[in-house]
Input
Amino acid sequence: MCAVDIRELTDKAEILECMHRYCRGMDRLDRELARSAYHDDAVDDHIGYSGGVEGFLDWAFDYHATLVRHQHYISNHSVELDGDVAHAETYYLFIGTERTEGAPLTMFGGRYVERRDGRWAIVVRRCLVEWAMSPESLLPLEGAGLGGTVARDLTDASYERPLVIS
Output
């Protein structure tokens, strides 16, 4: 494998890691981690918000605070590299449950589209919603949290360093 191939694979892995930081930051309500996925002058066009990154994060964290639980999943991920610029498309699935009694589970599916400039971080992103649905109910999982703390903040077990199993 030549150096150019290794650089391309490294760049693509770093771009995917950027999207993972975004998703984890949102799910753990870790603003600093979610913010690390963006450049300072980034713009996000995201369903109910379009504008700068700080405003987007305010909007997104306010929305996520209305939910009992939520998770972001990403799957198909393609990247077109052109030197220090990339166009990436990442399919996502968002699942959340509102706090109101009997509120349905909400699911969205679509694609995040982002570009970068300088370091591998989002410069411009548009969230495309391809479908949405609300099943009748979400059944609680008996024993949820077994094996460690499950939380939408920095007390979540995934932040433990070093991870110790007792």
The beta strands are 38-46, 49-52, 67-82, 85-98, 105-115, 122-133. The helical segments are 3-27, 31-35, 53-65. The radius of gyration is 17 Å.
